[in-house]
Amino acid sequence: MTKTPSPCIDVCKFKRNGHCIGCSMTKAQKSMFKSLKKDAHRVAFIEMLAAQQDKLGRYDHWRLAYRRKLAKKNVQPMDFLPDAA
User: Fold this and answer.
1) CA gap 15, 73 in Å, rounded
2) What is the phi/psi pair of residue 62, to 5°?
3) How many domains are contained in the chain?
């Protein structure tokens, strides 16, 4: 079984009050995600991140970009991710 990949979509610019403009993670959250070994913990983190994005706004692009990343790595997308266009 393939591990759930990082929610990073390779933008990595921390210009929104310490949050990445691509995925909304802070530098501390990026480090924390890397330390998560169990896939269930990784999925829970990504669900938390999606809620954070909804709260912060301006992250509508992330869900589709992350779904495409999952497809490239042959990983089943989470239910809250829209179908790829």
Assistant:
1) 28
2) -65, -45
3) 1
